[in-house]
Amino acid sequence: MKRPPMLMHMRVQGEKSGFGLWLPLFLLLPLALVVFIILSPLILVAAIVLWPSGWGKRALLSLRAAVEIFWSMRGLSVDIHSGRQRVSISVV
Amino acid sequence: MSDNKKKILEMLAQGKISADDAYRLLSALEGGEGRREATGRTETAVKGKAKYLRVTVLPDPEKEQSGNYDRVNIRVPMSLVRAGIKLTSLIPSEARDKVNLALHEKGIDFDARNMKPEEIEELIGALGDLEVDVETKTGEKVKVYVE
User: Measuring CA to CA, how many Å separate B4 from each of B16, B22, B144?
Assistant: First the structure.
């Protein structure tokens, strides 16, 4: 089973200054779950209303795809240097 | 027959490896003596599924010393690529028609609607052989590969 990403590290380095940021994604997961549970009746109603037009199914599938993409982000790493500037993002 | 053995025979049939390589790999699979002689590349192809798509841009060494250079190092998990390809099924038909038209104008006849899940897997599998290696006029080396 795939494990979800736990941390995201962002680092931006300018010519004179820079900053680094650790985002604890594992803390966001329970929060997102709570928000989803609270909003689920609304999502369900919206999906039922939009179902005849085809957008309801698409919206539900998009939600699933968004979760799948988030789950697949573990291991993503982007590191870009340009002159003395540097942007680096990694998901672990 | 195991999946690995099938893969080796398919690679042999496609001419990607020689009969000797195939024999060594099959021997290695069966725990025979051929294990040590198998080449690194074919071993990797049989052993492992591709995990990451890598894109790197390396600067010209002379420019690197001067400090004025661009360097890119991107690693994308294949599972993310797979999820991205699956997203194409969610593109509204109006937008998809426009994409297909734009691709057709570029001489690419490809319709994402016709892609089945097993074909996506096949596409991801085929990416394992991808290797793009470009050296620009300015001395930068661009590499796209799967590891």
Answer: 15, 11, 26
Smallest CA–CA distance, residue A63 to chain B, in Å, is 11
pLDDT one-digit tens code per residue, A2-37: 788 999 999 999 888 899 999 999 998 889 899 999
Asked, for residue A2, whether it belongs to a domain, the answer is no
The residue among B1, B20, B7 whose CA lies nearest residue B48 is B7
Q: How far apart are CA B90 and CA A63, in angstroms?
A: 11
Among positive and negative, which fits the CA dihedral B115, B119, B124, B128? negative
What are the extents of the domains in chain B? Answer: 3-47, 52-146
Asked if B87 has any chain A CB less than 8 Å from its own CB, the reply is: yes
Within-domain flag for A74: yes
pTM to 2 decimals?
Answer: 0.67
Give the span between the Cα atoms of B132 and B120, in whole angstroms.
21
Domain, as residue range, for A78:
7-91
Structurally, chain A folds into a number of domains equal to 1
Find the CB nearest A65 among B52, B75, B87: B87
pLDDT by 10s per residue, chain B, length 147? 667 777 777 777 777 777 777 777 777 666 544 444 444 444 444 446 788 999 999 988 877 777 778 899 999 999 898 888 878 777 777 888 888 888 888 888 777 667 777 777 787 778 877 889 999 888 889 999 998
